[in-house]
Fold each of these.
Amino acid sequence: MSKKIESHLTEDRVFKPSKEFSKKARISSMAQYKRMYQESIDKPGTFWAREAKELGWQKKWTKALEWKAPYAKWFVGGKINVCESCVDRHVREGRGNKAAIIWEGEPGENVTLTYRQLQREVCKFANVLLARGIKSKDRVLIYMPMVPEAAIAMLACARIGAVHSVVFGGFSAESISDRLEDCKAKAVITTDGGYRRGSIVPLKANVDEALKRYKDVETVIVHQRTGDKVTMKKGRDVYWHEEAAQVSAIHEPKGFDSEHPLFILYTSGSTGKPKGILHTSGGYLTGAYTTCKYIFDMQEDDVYWCTADVGWITGHSYIVYGPLANGVTQVMYEGAPNFPDFGRFWDIVEKYSVSIFYTAPTAIRAFIKAGDEFPDSRDLSSLRLLGTVGEPINPEAWMWYHEKIGGGRCPIVDTWWQTETGAIMISPLPGCTPTKPGTATLPFFGVDAAILDETGQECRADEGGKLVIRKPWPSMLRTIYGDKKRYRDTYWNDYDGMYTAGDGARTDKKGNFWIVGRLDDVLNVSGHRLGTAEVESALVSHKVVAEAAVVGRPHEIKGQGVVAFVTLKGNAKSSDALAKELRNHVGTVIGAIAKPDEIFFTPALPKTRSGKIMRRLLKELVETGSVSGNTTTLEDHEVIAALQKQVSGK
Ligand code: 7RM
């Protein structure tokens, strides 16, 4: 039986950037991209040294790269202070009065921090950390909502060489204590609470709960966001504003080794305990900086907005480190996209004249479902560039994003990358790459991406296989914190000296990369290996379907049968006739082998808190009738409870 992943969807629409966009873009022709790409692969040291130099090092490196697979060291011997590079450098270069962060709270208030103000806040907080005995390489857990203080806390850690580990504010007390135990954190930075969809999330109370299990935290610093009363344990818990009032606003940033650890970010993976992905300083910052510069085409007068949370890698690389290293002005928003209604994002775009907007396909599908009246009634003409991340974007959502949000004029960068890769790996460059709905297109500079089959041979065009990266890149993870064996086993075991991403993919004849989904999710129907993304895209291309998730279920004859979970748009009604119509629709778009055996209509799909569909749970549900596996990363437990009834009752 063939182990190749098949691919059946074709997409012929091609969108090229307008002449006007290209003319002003940093990379304006494919010839320029190809020239630079070639150099980045042939002479990575030369290429990356030129980019890294722009970040302002305290001491130059002696060697750009030292590679002993699977361990890389970038800019060996160099010294840099990541915080200085993101903040002080801009004040020095004349951007002191430029807005760094324009923050809007969910209830509606807003605050602007210039680069000079940010510098002041960061220096004060660095002094607070030092006064509390936090030293270089100590781990500090950050559990905060989307407030500027979250970025300030991260930057202040970086400034003194402490290693931050941000835990998403939607996670439970148990997730906090698991992570505290794994990284042995000395301090926690949190807030009294945070606003989400009009109510208050009790963050400090969750920290208190977690600290009943993990007892080695010496300091808890509490920023007052809501003003709600919280329990403060004497000697351990202190208020941010009280501490900050007692320290100097001056702090000299010391340079740290390029390979000094910058942060640990936990990623749940599909099974087992969360992996602490470790990123270091010089290489990581170079990756975040360079991708922002070329992929988001960041320019001096842009207003950039990434809607992710700082608790995810996207928030680290594309809210904190990348944009600030570029000295850009950015919007930061605290709350939910649908508070008070689905017009909120578009109000923010209009109000602050956002020019670059970066969000996730799951959000786009939610907007489509909510109705066009929300974007239609706002002025979105300030936008010039759109981006997506997190999942394959189905062509329907791509087209809607292009037309409704981008007014047909904005290039879309579909960016493929991972917590582990630290920065974007595969993406169009907006001023030159011809885009097609559904593909992340071509590898970024320095990224030697390929699709391999089981034997390690490179797949031909349109043949599916495993996505690998064949050469080290500056922002790659350095290890799994405290678990070198797991690091090797998870990422470096499939092919000699190559990084395996765990995604199935194919390239088309033009070399564009199409991600077909996580390898654990690939279906095997009568020996045909199908990517979940394709079958889901086919379903979503039907006019009444808002969202779909597809999994395999054991089948006596076929090996696996296809089962689909479908969410309908606005007023569409589910029926047996519609299920039949959808099956036939998949048959027409892909072929008979991909037709679902069964379709469940559901008002919502189970997702992680960052919006990725949790197919693993659906698979368990159709196989066993219930879900007993790990559901700690699940966004909404009601969804699974309802589906359980539906599936077992059928
Ligand atoms: C940034 C982030 C990583 C996984 C990755 C893919 C999927 C992300 C895309 C995508 C298709 C994309 N980090 N993924 N971006 N699939 N097209 N543009 O999401 O560590 O949380 O997830 O997400 O499966 O391996 S992550």
Amino acid sequence: MRAALLLVVTVLVGTVVSVDVWWESAVVYQIYPRSFKDSNGDGVGDLNGIKEKLPYLKDLGVDAIWLSPIFKSPMRDFGYDITDYKEISSEYGTMADFDALMAEAKRIGIRVILDYVPNHTSPESDWFQRSALSESKYKDYYIWANGTVDSTGARSPPNNWVSVFRKSAWEWHPTRLQYYLHQFAIGQPDLNYRNADVRQEMKDVLHFWLKKGVSGFRMDAVNFIYEVDPAKFGGKYPNEAPIGSVATDEYDSVNHTYTKDLDETYNVIFDWRALLDEYTTQHNENKLMVTEAYTSLPMMMRYYGNATRTGSVPFNFVYLESINSTSDANGLKSAIDAWMTNMPAGKVANWVNGNHDQKRMATRYGEKRVDAMNMLALILPGLSFTYQGEELGMTDDMIPWASTLDPQACNTEDPLQYWRVSRDPARSPFHWDDSVFAGFSNGSSTWLPVASNYRTVNVAVQRAMYKSHYNFYKDMVALKHGPALKSGKLETHVLGSNVFIVTRLTSNQKEGIIGIINLSGLSYQVDITQMSGVTKELTVVASGVDCIVSKGDKTAKSDIRLSGYCAMVLQNAGQRLIYSFTVYFAIYFLYVNLA
Ligand code: NOJ
């Protein structure tokens, strides 16, 4: 973690200006616009709905919101299939609505991060339409290839590449009379990054939104940007090697050596980072660039940059990939250590408990671990990402096959097994209150059904409770903005297999923070006398729903009462002790001298 929170920029005239690298210890809240708040009763969330709820987010304390794609799209993959990168989807509102949202967010001090989807567009985009017609400028904007025709005249795709959403990654185009590559849905043709015009067009998109004042981008599926150069294979795209004896329709049945994690990817990322940096001085803020790549840890780490180029913050998917509802204290420790020890020196860590592609955090880790996992996202150094609803412990409901919309689930064509990969449950509407449709919409239906527990798991109920996931989350966010969680030294401790402790101590003892998690239903009396830098007496500053202690309670370092599944945060009481000692000494001094 960088020692300084300020980036010093020397401007041309030679004066030194400090620019806030605001994201180094920020909370970024992911909004899935379709499901956050519907302002016009059509059952789909929209920009005005988000604007209406900005006070909620301000009160929660988040620093920035990341909006999943809000651009013009036929919604085959719910906005990750973009027709025009510079237009707002009419379902979500207008450009004027976006400008109004930006203005209001800026006024109240919340930054806006947009989703940037560089790998693919919609086939409805002007670029694709022109490419399909082989117009000279656009001819190579996408990955086109000839298929093969057998003796019976039957056509088959150029090779065995498989889509992330199953089946061939190639789709025949009847006008162009060639196949186009789509590593995701058929409605998401891959752009060709070996074409300089494509690279320039995509840079223009970044400039467009930066000029509107956005504070950064979450960049989608970046490790899919490049495919192997066919020139190296006699002008053909080679087959990928099957993992088992044969390749099947499943994405994991082949090794994606030619379609994923290619070396060229990193230079594009570094170029985009440099582009974002052009706005640092002008906007007096360093832009956030966070990249999405589900890949091996070493490949993730390469996104951070190298000795000569600055890179992005790669999403940390270690929790998602290695933690589950049965992980013990050692499991948590190794997940955290994996990131912290592999991260290049001086870079910023980040913590992700969920997103719109994963089972909700409470469903994946278990409802009893909601406070623990929220604590871990917020107590560790660096950026914390929260997917909407994690602050409430929202859970996934089963969504019937007949109502299933996610292309990843629909592509299974299997009414019995689709739910295993369906991302719809995590995308159901946000729960504001216990009114009809959970206060999300006042229309007559919602695009996905509202989860059945909305009457008890919602903002209004949890705000009113003395202890709730919401209140605990909010306390954690407030602590995150304090000195210990910004810059305190990180240490993790495992006590047996069920108790996990995180300390963030600074040279100013009174600021020290100690987070304690009980992963089991058993009660413990914890003694941390041996832990240096921790004062004898401690104050509870955040207490999860399962703790017997409450915020404001005092506890001795030698006798911490930890009820089953309790997640609590304690603060050193150094200040009070030193203060009391000084006061007693002053009284004694006056007494002795005046008596
Ligand atoms: C990752 C996005 O998060 C996901 O929702 C989408 O389906 C794929 N990328 C393709 O854009």
